[in-house]
Specification:
By secondary structure, the chain is of the alpha+beta class. The chain contains nine helices and seven strands, in the order H-H-H-H-H-H-E-E-H-H-E-E-E-E-E-H. A five-stranded antiparallel beta sheet has the order 6-5-4-3-7, with no helix packed on it.
Length: 261
């Protein structure tokens, strides 16, 4: 004869509650935040949390409220009470606020020299734009220091393709470059090939900016192929262009870019 043990529903509820409360703030961060803000808050689809001040809130009560309601119109969802109780959510908020850094300590290089390298040796304004200066074939970097941390920026300079996402397919209306960056090649039915960075795409059309900074629009019914080059970047690696000290100066300058005030 076989016996089975039926656990009461109330006991299952207790176990579930204990399980929720047993998660550490780090566990909660990995489960609910790391996918967008990076494993250590360095930034990914969402902005970096390693900043002197967060974009929306900087006190525990406000951050708890924000986590509960999410941010409408963005990819940041609400965290329901059934998913994370009030106590653990407050601990998560404290953990997130603890990721903030002192901007002055974020990078060790010299800003003025970094700005000069950005404009001269790096020729970065050939593709990028900063506060209205430069070109737009690459992502606008005017507030990149608010969106990304020092380590991410350093890697993006020496290994650009490691900073390009390859895990999304559709254009996301609420997310700006560089998070939406995708290099595409359109082949028309007449055989012409046009490459550039995708600006917008829907089921019927695609718009891109080509290497000459021109915006091109195509109806998908009029092209023979749209080749999406996931994880690819036209930006060359700068590992061998800058010395170690020059790289630190350049990164320091990029960290300082937080938009016009």
């Amino acid at each position: 004869m076989r016996y089975t043990f039926a656990m009461p529903r109330w006991a299952l509820g207790v176990i579930a509650c204990v399980s929720l409360w047993a998660q550490t703030p780090r566990d909660l961060y990995v489960a609910h935040c790391a996918g967008c803000h990076g494993p250590s808050g360095e930034g990914s689809r969402g902005p970096s949390l390693k900043a002197a001040a967060l974009q929306h809130t900087n006190d525990p009560d406000s951050l708890v409220a924000l986590l509960r309601r999410g941010i409408p119109g963005t990819e940041m969802p609400a965290i329901a009470l059934e998913t994370v109780a009030d106590g653990p959510l407050r601990a998560l908020a404290a953990y997130v606020l603890g990721l903030r850094t002192n901007t002055k300590e974020a990078a060790s290089g010299y800003l003025d020299r970094g700005a000069e390298l950005f404009r001269t040796k790096g020729k970065c304004l050939t593709c990028h734009r900063v506060n209205g200066e430069g070109h737009t074939s690459g992502p606008d970097l005017s507030d990149i220091g608010r969106l990304r941390d020092e380590e991410w920026l350093r890697q993006a300079v020496v290994e650009p393709e490691k900073a390009i996402y390859d895990s999304f397919a559709g254009y996301r209306w609420t997310i700006n470059l560089p998070d939406n960056y995708l290099l595409v090649e359109v082949t028309t039915k007449s055989g012409d090939r046009i490459s550039g960075s995708r600006l917008n795409e829907d089921a019927f059309s695609i718009q891109l900016r080509d290497s000459e900074d021109r915006i091109r629009s195509f109806l998908k019914s009029e092209v023979s192929e749209v080749r999406r080059q996931w994880g690819k970047s036209p930006m060359p690696p700068y590992r061998d262009v800058f010395s170690s000290s020059e790289l630190e100066d350049l990164v320091a300058y990029l960290v300082s870019l937080r938009g016009l005030r």
